[in-house]
């Protein structure tokens, strides 16, 4: 399998039945080749349990990794080669939705969800857009609410954003970059990855028309068994201290968990613009003569002010 032949990487911890009845069922529905699917478990004992619980042939490979959210997220990109196309999924995805307008307008009251027609097409479209835009991390809208989303149209610029935003970890694709994948915290680690890929590429690709139905924080078992309010809060505070120009604390969520708001507040912040075909809009180049003239005009302007 070549680097551009994507793999599906799923970390799972102590919930083989959830994986079997949720994410694997979704992948089977969309006819994703089981040979592409790699399930990462915490230890040899878990591997044995998963092999016995999952239908034979439903998974291409089991890999024994390490326990802990941060640890397994660091382990997976090291397992795959640099530049590998990786489609990450959590083990508790129930459904994948696409957003459309009932009358093809931009009136949000007309936005509705329907189940995604083809996951294969979405993955192919997303990685092709990565190639064209030179942005190597793509994802989907983090909230299952069509009112806040964008409806699919014939123009990707209507529903795909490139600015600094939250690429949620439950379903995301990357062209593997081990440096950008390094996690230093056990919670909010997908915020950390979003920031690092953004700093690497200057942008992120988010399909604001696509979302998933899942139960974050609520599904029994899984890696969140060790998650606490304090650890979540401490991770959020850590990110705001590490990247003060890129994120701020958000303590107003109904869930009661401390969250993070992402926004590029740097004075030289720029948002990548895309052409209709997905390539970057080229910024006008300034030749040496023009730069010299601009510098001269600036000096003249400063002298007048004095």
How would you describe this structure to a colleague?
The protein has 306 residues and is an alpha/beta fold. The protein has one domain: Spore Coat Polysaccharide Biosynthesis Protein SpsA, Chain A (Alpha-Beta Complex). The chain has eight helices and 13 strands. The chain has an eight-stranded mixed beta sheet, with helices on both faces. The protein has a three-stranded antiparallel beta sheet with strand order 6-5-11, with no helix packed on it. The chain has a two-stranded antiparallel sheet with strand order 12-13. Strand 12 and strand 13 form a beta hairpin. The mean pLDDT is 91.
Count of helical segments? 8
Q: Which regions have little confidence, pLDDT < 50, spanning 5+ residues?
A: none
Helical content class: 25-40%
Distance between the termini: 66 Å
Quick one: overall form?
Answer: globular
The residue-averaged pLDDT reads: 91
| CATH-defined fold name | Spore Coat Polysaccharide Biosynthesis Protein SpsA, Chain A
CATH architecture: Alpha-Beta Complex
Compressed to H and E, one letter per element, the order equals EHHEHEHEEEHEEEHEEHEEH
The major sheet is characterized as: 8 strands, mixed
Compute the CA-based radius of gyration: 21 Å
Number of strands: 13
The CATH class is identified as Alpha Beta
Strand order of the largest sheet: 3-2-1-4-9-7-10-8
